[in-house]
Amino acid sequence: MKTPSPAEQIKEGIAVITGAGSGLGRALSCALVAEGVNVVGFGRRIEALAETKYEAEQSGKASFTPMQVDVSEASEVRRAYNEIGEINGRPTILINNAGVYPHRDSLSEYPEDFMQTMAINLGGVVNCTATALQYMKESGIGRIINVGSFADIAPLPASAAYSVSKGAGQIYVRALVADIGDRLPNIVISTWMPGALATDMGIPEGLKPEVAAAWGAKLALWHDPSLNGSVFEMNQEVPPTRGLKSKVKDMLLLRRGPKPRMIPS
Length: 265
Known about the structure:
It is a single chain. With 265 residues, this protein is α/β, with parallel strands linked by helices. It is 44% helix and 15% strand. It is built from 9 helices and 8 strands. Helix 2 runs parallel beside helix 3.
């Protein structure tokens, strides 16, 4: 009997999506279920997760299991993953999507409120990723997507906690790749920035979450060790920063730099 490829094993396992009760998380859940992937959705509002389940399972191709989880609490995340392992199967995909975006000026924001945002936006990523890795390392195969933002590069007014938390999340991804990239190359970790969306956290004229989710779902199913540490904006790779020496060499050899990859349609 032929052993399934890592890409096949990824799709046959369980995808965990945080913040699955609305917006992008709901759209990602629907997109992955439509691809035939069984999804477990984490969220704090069980009623909202029930709505996601109804929408996601309209395709009839896979299942959506709602789990009421506060990702800022490590014990709740561990409990949820234990239930997944006992009931649903092996977690092979994690999309860290959960986040809050409080609009508070730094002069009026209490430190406790700032740190609560960090606990959700950064702590949630750490809690879910560290727990997922305990399951993924057994087979050495997994796919992790961290939903990122340009907020750390160009913070908007009244967004200090959000900007710091999203920037720290991207640093955490790079640190993970440095730690396990050589030892577990088939656990592939990427950052994905979906762009400005028409959601509660986005802008009215933004991109429909369903459009972005189609890219996010394909990226989650794209298993290639060369994607480790990659960053994608919408459906295109953001090339890594290259030094002056490399750029000069390209000029002298009359060659172009690496061509950004596109998410398969």
